[in-house]
Amino acid sequence: MDITRRQLGTLVGAALLTPYLPARPAAAAVAWQLMWAPEASSVGLGAFETIEDDRADSHPAGQPHIFAEGNNFRFNMHTVDRDTMTDRQRQEVTGTRNPSGYLQWLKGETWRVTYSMFIPSSLKATTTFTHISQTKMPGTGTLPITTTSLRRVNGVQTIEHTIYEQGILVGRTNLEPLQDKWIDAEYEIKIGDGSAGSVRWVLRDGSTTLVDATKTGDTFLGDRVRPKWGIYRSLGDTSGSLQNCYMLLTNMRAYKQVQVTATRLEAENATISQGVVESNHAGYSGTGFVNSDNVAGAYTEWGFQQGTAGPATLTIRYANGTSANRPMDVTVNGTVVASGLSFAGTGAWTTWASKTVNANLVAGANTVRLTATTANGCPNLDYLDITGP
Ligand code: GCU
User: Which of 32, 63, 125, 362 could cross-link to 150 by cystine, CB 3.0-4.6 Å?
Assistant: First the structure.
């Protein structure tokens, strides 16, 4: 993808720099651009492209079946609800809508969606399909592209994700331990025909990752890909699992993968406290590196401007020709974001390595400071790369 300088300023905001810090673009990198972050309490169902709330009008007394409840999106399903095809039930929303319009998920693109989900024990896995999320080509008459479903496997309730048409199981885990609590889902789709497509599906219960699986498979039918969420299930279940139930979703985010150019800030151009610029160990970028004094508290600090606030990856290139760790505090805008981060020996002063830290940057002026926390001082510092937002 060819990003112009102007787009870079708007999209990633990494191009604007203070005059006293000349920078040059580093290697191209991949970043996730936040495209959709609806809060149910403020935008309500305006978060979505279409609302399929009892579209056959089968149960007016139960309407609305889909609504914002606090900051959650709620989907109610009653046993009497019927879709237009009366062998099934459907309460679903489609698409991702922004103030500027519907997001178009197109062939060749990669999208990531994250959200928190509450599945009560009343929403059970079934012997026939119960989809709680799908991707589809808009319009009727085509099968799903991918599905997240609650399926009974040998009598056990499970939650699974599949690339639907090819019947590729991306991942599956037991459902019952995940009911009646908030869990976190992450879904990544590379949109392409055949082996050009792939899906990653991650399911977390707090800090425990239950599934993190990626499968190659066909993820494009035609036109575009549109996500759906809600409860869409067959009445053909033979396990007696259909009852009045609901599902909650919140904290929904969609990101599009973009190519960005990291901005490189050389250490020799930074503000140095207790250290000097040298160039006697080869392999550095720019005109040299910073050799800090061997003292705790020595630091190198970069100041720079960002166009946009958001998460960024900081890549620190360094060399440590000793065998002792040279930990540093990483401080962003006055707040320590990594305390005593280790910078282990690299084998030689001419062997350079990189360490990355994630941090949130603000729009406008930012600072990143690396401070030695031991009497050995900092490792030799070559540069700081900033990727995103
Ligand atoms: C050596 C090396 C320096 C390094 C220093 C140190 O003097 O040449 O580049 O900074 O050790 O231990 O910090």
Answer: 125
